[in-house]
Automatic annotation (TrEMBL):
Organism: Pseudomonas aylmerensis
Top-rank taxon, per record: Bacteria
Protein name (database record): Cell shape-determining protein MreC
Residue ranges with Low complexity bias: 318-345, 352-370
Family (UniProt): Belongs to the MreC family.
Residue span of region Disordered: 266-293, 318-370
Amino acid sequence: MGVRLLVLVVLSVALMVVDARFALLKPVRSQMSLVLMQTYWITDLPQRLYQGVASQFGSRTELVAENEKLKTENLLLQGRMQKLAALTEQNVRLRELLNSSALVNEKVEVAELIGMDPNPFTHRIIINKGERDGVVLGQPVLDARGLMGQVVELMPYTSRVLLLTDTTHSIPVQVNRNGLRAIASGTGNPERLELRHVADTADIKEGDLLVSSGLGQRFPAGYPVATVKEVIHDSGQPFAIVRAVPTAALNRSRYLLLVFSDNRTPEERANEAAQAQEAEDKKNGTTPIIPATVPKPAAAAPVTPVVAPAAAPVATAVKPATHTAHPVKPAATKPPASTPAAAPAAKPPVTAPAARPATTAPATTRQREE
């Protein structure tokens, strides 16, 4: 028995080391999840039976009150949806005027929480959607109140989600009031987040809503993340201590949403937007604006070099004329030298060599006479 126990202990330690250091056991874990899925379903069966029985024997008064409450909420949400639809259409029209790509709404899919990681030092949960349902690594997960985390491990029918409050998780956020950017990191406490490296003079205060900024290209922008609970300023420290409370119910939410965002690059979006605009122009029979404006700068460009050469020879022609004005007096004493001096004045290229001996010779004779 002792030898068997020793062998099993060594084997267990070896498996844990291999699982922690290498990726050799990931396929095995993926296949084992098929068996564990049935275990999760069996362990969750009593709670689902209890909820089903409780819903069957609910009182009529509670059902009527809940029905009235749901009708009121539905009416309010419909009113907000009408305003949101108008704003969405206005945004689309403005982006069309700017010749920008269309804003694609994220696609979401409902998932259910079926398990939690028993390790108290890690905040991970298990959902009933996996690789065969189209889930990808890094996919954002949220509930009815805000962001919860992202998918970090895939299995055929299940996935592991790392919550925002885990010590190894960080997310870029911004203050909804003024757009101040920061990084929200997990603290290991399911009810607290911390903003790292926030300047002591930053404009942030208690009650500010923190939303995802989308700068990391992992989480979509505009989703609520947390609410600032406490801001501590220390005159001896360069950074303020900012604590926030997650908006999502990390310990209470059972039904979650998987966000399928647009994974296209900015270049692909710009190309598709240009192709769509070109197709729309051809359909309407209108002439594109950009090609019509291109020939105008091309015609105006050669005008400038024509003027520059014309001004240059005029300036050069004036210079030899002024230089030849001084040697006019000595030219009268020597008729043969005056005729070649006048001829180069008509042709600027010839005046350069001819003017040099003409100007130097009189200058020397004048000095000798003096």
